[in-house]
Amino acid sequence: MSDAAMTLEGWYALHDFRSIDWTAWKAADDEERAVALDELQAFMKEWTTAEEAGQGSSTVYTVVGQKADFVMFHLRETLEDLKHLENEFNKTTFAKYTTKSYSYVSVVELSNYLGKDGGDPYQNPEIMARLKPILPKNRYICFYPMNKKRDLNDNWYMLSMEERRGMMRSHGMIGRSYAGKVKQIITGSVGLDDWEWGVTLFSDDALQFKKLVYEMRFDEVSARYGEFGSFYVGSLLDEGSFEEMLKL
Ligand code: VOV
């Protein structure tokens, strides 16, 4: 048996994709819509409280195309906290005007492929900042789930640690060349959801997603072992732009 990579875990993650029922939203009267917007704002204010208390981080982005209309991305200490957030949203009046499109459950993950030994990583402030990150406010998000292949000839999980480490080094080098342009949060989901990882990218220039993902397609770990799910891309919403999007 090959050595399993050691992983460090941080906050649990929920990507909660919703679509707007425009017919119902347009049929609602002004008062009902005002209540829905107030409750939505109150719900989003709680995110700031959680973030200030160091208990998690949340953000919301539009989703362009017909897979969903927006995605709420939550990071919290426990799965119960995530379920609570999901329920709290479902209880809002605004939720009545939305339908569920997709969701993804995972946990922020770092592996030891390129890590340095020494010390308790959970006491290392740099590592903790990556395991429990405050979500950036970049203009664009890109999310997709992925697997590493387990085919007869191309089975990531049958490779030696050294072989995998070599490929991850090359992966990391491509990633690093996008420093300042793209930030990544890798969340592990083996045993938690349908794919093995969630890839969430943030950038102020959506074209950088295309450039980075394309460049990685030529890199062995992606070219040979990567399997990818659906891509979701969109732009940052705040209370103001959310309200603007819903204005009739
Ligand atoms: C934005 C840039 C960027 C950078 C700097 C970066 C670097 C790194 C490093 C250094 C490491 C290894 C240590 C760790 O941190 O775990 C990883 C790990 C990982 N990555 Fe990555 N990655 C990036 C970006 C990046 C992208 C765009 C993708 C999607 C791949 C593609 O083809 O679409 C990805 C995937 C992953 C995955 C699934 C893992 C876990 C693999 C495992 O088997 O455990 N990643 N990644």
UniProtKB/TrEMBL annotation:
Cofactor requirement: Fe-coproporphyrin III
List of catalytic residues: Y144
Enzyme class: oxidoreductase
InterPro entries reported in the protein's UniProt record: CHDC, ChdC/CLD, Dimeric_a/b-barrel
Keyword ATP-binding: no
Annotated metabolic or biological route of this protein: Porphyrin-containing compound metabolism; protoheme biosynthesis
Protein name as it appears in the record: Coproheme decarboxylase
Family (UniProt): Belongs to the ChdC family. Type 1 subfamily.
Catalytic activity as recorded in UniProt: harderoheme III + H2O2 + H(+) = heme b + CO2 + 2 H2O; Fe-coproporphyrin III + H2O2 + H(+) = harderoheme III + CO2 + 2 H2O; Fe-coproporphyrin III + 2 H2O2 + 2 H(+) = heme b + 2 CO2 + 4 H2O
The species this protein was found in: Paenibacillus lacisoli
UniProt-annotated binding residues for Fe-coproporphyrin III: R130, Y144, P145, M146, N147, K148, H171, Q184, S222
Cofactor binding: number and manner: Fe-coproporphyrin III acts as both substrate and redox cofactor.
UniProt GO molecular function: peroxidase activity
EC number of the protein: 1.3.98.5
Described purpose of this protein according to its UniProt entry: Involved in coproporphyrin-dependent heme b biosynthesis. Catalyzes the decarboxylation of Fe-coproporphyrin III (coproheme) to heme b (protoheme IX), the last step of the pathway. The reaction occurs in a stepwise manner with a three-propionate intermediate.
